[in-house]
Amino acid sequence: MRPALLLMACDLFNGSVLKALAPAVGIEVFHNFTLLHDDIMDKAPLRRGKPTVHAKWNESIAILSGDVMLVKAYELMMEVENDILRPVLAIFNQTATGVCEGQQIDMNFEALDGVSVAEYLEMIRLKTAVLLGGSLKIGTLIGNAPEEQAELLYQFGENLGLAFQLQDDILDVYGDPDKFGKLVGGDIISNKKTFLLIKAIELAEGLEKEELDYWLYAENVVSEDKVNAVTDLYNRLGVRQLAEEQMNKFAERALSALDKVAAEDDKKQALKIFAEKLLVREN
Amino acid sequence: MRPALLLMACDLFNGSVLKALAPAVGIEVFHNFTLLHDDIMDKAPLRRGKPTVHAKWNESIAILSGDVMLVKAYELMMEVENDILRPVLAIFNQTATGVCEGQQIDMNFEALDGVSVAEYLEMIRLKTAVLLGGSLKIGTLIGNAPEEQAELLYQFGENLGLAFQLQDDILDVYGDPDKFGKLVGGDIISNKKTFLLIKAIELAEGLEKEELDYWLYAENVVSEDKVNAVTDLYNRLGVRQLAEEQMNKFAERALSALDKVAAEDDKKQALKIFAEKLLVREN
Asked: CA A152, A73, B83, B16: dihedral to nearest 10 degrees?
């Protein structure tokens, strides 16, 4: 979706989509570099249903391949006209730094007890949302649109990314197992600090707090029992609805930024449809 | 030494050394990024006498810190005038790709039996020498010197880097334990495919070949015995002298490229002294 957003942003201003192709590939190479390294850190055996690079080859190869992919991403990103080379790379640097910082904060959360909703939203903003915003902003510059248009597209992308990640949290618990592609309840099993869990910890009192703590700290429990019990607690605490409200808030902000963009309505409509498809997905 | 070479190359053409400071720091940040990741791959506990990042914190932190250092290196490298931004980054991309490829080839060598001297020299060219060449070439461009001067400086740096790495191989076996800073014989203990070992495997025949094979494949041997025996074999086969001859050949090529550079003699002299100090070092 990141290369598609970059190309659509360029096309929005009637920019040459051909000129945006190499940077669009660069964004995708960058995203896959982060996946290679994230998979090492998460010790993930599978990615898109296939063995991860470190599992298939070894960890050193996954580290080095990721490194060289980041360099190749810069090479591809440099395939723009001279007059926008520096601003495009500046956005890319900022985006890449944000993604790395977001991943580090996410890992830090594992060892922390008290993560607030605000801290969580800042983490997913860095880890997920800035790359969507950055892709759109780069596409806008390649389309020769002025800075304030690029900024609006960035706002659209960042808010879309935040909504997308909240949808991810919701799907991990409430997704259809036949369509989700990953194990439903995976976040619950690993105590991952998602919006749902952070809200539940915030809201649970008395017996519900005791019950939640039990499942968070209990060892040797049956995964299915834990997923069922915690999902039931989420339902009683109403955290799914809170997550959906928060998600809709971001989605509205995204669409409101898009509304303000000075471009043809039918092209804006295409981006709007793309965004809506992202947010009503089942996997 | 890499930032120093970059600054000296800039100064050689009376370029503003102040303008070269940020890229010089960028080269050092890049070099340290490679050390962070190499130390993970080598499972090295110490670097410069202190715990490595992955040993002190953890591996994920070392991977991510390295990643973000590479991005910071690009940011610093971008602090050049617009008219040389693209060529400077192109050299940097090429250099970074070479360093990663060299590291991968070095790791591949561990599992290979027959590595030739030519393959070894190509590996150290990529892993060590291109970064010295790249540093000098970038400094030359910042000094506003023409392309053919940058190319001469690159030749100087690449050959200096090759000589430097051969000197490293020699020091690892023949260095003074009080001055070397690392364990003398470390390469022998780990069967590292250095110029000395590759030449020894090439030259050993009959009883000497049997003896070398014994030490290469024997398990549970006393490290000191292995170091003494293999060093003795190296002496009998004369591989130290061959390494020194090869090193001197590269050093001569480096100095001959420097001779051709169109710059003031006293400034060239400073680079020559720098190179000579690198090659007669004891650690």
From this structure: 110
A80 φ, ψ (degrees, to nearest 5): -130, 170
Residue B273 lies in a domain: no
Each residue of A17-55: pLDDT tens digit? Answer: 999 999 999 999 999 999 999 999 999 999 988 999 999
CATH code, domain carrying A192? 1.10.600.10
pLDDT 10s digits, A210-244: 999 999 999 899 999 999 999 999 999 999 999 99
User: Residue B195: which residues within 8 A CB-CB, separation 6 or more?
Assistant: B117, B120, B121, B166, B169, B239, B242, B243, B246
Determine the straight-line distance between the first and last CA of chain B, rounded to whole angstroms: 14
Q: Does A40 touch chain B (CB under 8 A)?
A: yes
Q: How far apart are CA A186 and CA A58, in angstroms?
A: 25
**Residues 45-74 in A contacting B (C-alpha not used; CB under 8 Å):** 59-61, 63-64, 66-68, 70-72, 74
Is residue B277 situated within a structural domain?
no
Q: B227 touching A, CB under 8 A?
A: no
State if pTM tops 0.80: yes
Smallest CA-to-CA distance from A142 within A85, A71, A72, A75 is with A85
Number of domain units in chain A: 1
